[in-house]
């Protein structure tokens, strides 16, 4: 949840500066149990879309935020339906990507969908189930702090798009 907190914080700053309007998508939940006005049980009605969607400088953006404690990024962390959504976004002219936080390295990367998709293909060919950290370092863009923003993903996105 720390990663999403920093992304939400950045998104609020981008909106105040009129740089982007990006919102977090929440999957619809069917509540099946309540006690004292608190939800005690429920389930997701449908598979969740990528976490964030919006506009950044007139460019449609769609991305998912992931964290890992591993020294590589497990492919199982991104579900098939999320990959499909990110791919469709790209095919329609938008910019889609993953924001991946490596907890033990204390680093966060923006990995464009095209680079991620190439990684998936390479992992499948090699019979491995995760993307090595070094590959994400090479193909992704390190996200750093920006002007009053702890995790300035928008600057990394512009650089990754060039």
UniProtKB/TrEMBL annotation:
GO terms for biological process: chromosome segregation; DNA recombination; DNA repair. Its cofactor is Mg(2+). One of its GO terms (cellular component) is cytoplasm. Pfam families: RecU. GO terms for molecular function: crossover junction DNA endonuclease activity; magnesium ion binding; nucleic acid binding. InterPro entries: Resolv_RecU, Restrct_endonuc-II-like, tRNA_endonuc-like_dom_sf. This is Holliday junction resolvase RecU. HAMAP family: RecU (MF_00130). Endonuclease that resolves Holliday junction intermediates in genetic recombination. Cleaves mobile four-strand junctions by introducing symmetrical nicks in paired strands. Promotes annealing of linear ssDNA with homologous dsDNA. Required for DNA repair, homologous recombination and chromosome segregation. Signal peptide: none annotated. The record marks 66 as: Transition state stabilizer. Keywords: Cytoplasm, DNA damage, DNA recombination, DNA repair, Endonuclease, Hydrolase, Magnesium, Metal-binding, Nuclease. Mg(2+) binds at residues 51, 64, 82. Its main location: cytoplasm. Binds 1 Mg(2+) ion per subunit. Gene3D superfamilies: 3.40.1350.10. It is found in: Cytoplasm. Belongs to the RecU family. SUPFAM superfamilies: Restriction endonuclease-like. It catalyses: Endonucleolytic cleavage at a junction such as a reciprocal single-stranded crossover between two homologous DNA duplexes (Holliday junction). Its EC number is 3.1.21.10.
């Amino acid at each position: 949840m720390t990663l999403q907190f920093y992304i939400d914080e950045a998104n609020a700053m981008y909106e105040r500066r009129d740089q982007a309007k990006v919102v977090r998508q929440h999957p619809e939940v069917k509540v099946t149990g309540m006690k004292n006005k608190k939800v005690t049980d429920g389930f997701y009605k449908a598979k969740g879309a990528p976490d964030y969607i919006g506009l950044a400088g007139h460019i449609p953006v769609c991305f998912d935020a992931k964290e890992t404690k591993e020294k590589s990024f497990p492919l199982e962390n991104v579900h098939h339906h999320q990959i499909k959504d990110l791919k469709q976004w790209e095919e329609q002219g938008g910019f889609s990507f993953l924001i991946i936080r490596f907890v033990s390295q204390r680093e966060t990367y923006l990995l464009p969908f095209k680079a991620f998709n190439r990684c998936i293909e390479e992992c499948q060919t090699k019979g491995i189930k995760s993307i090595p950290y070094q590959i994400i370092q090479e193909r992704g863009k390190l996200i750093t702090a920006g002007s009053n923003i702890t995790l300035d993903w928008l600057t990394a996105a512009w650089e990754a798009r060039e």
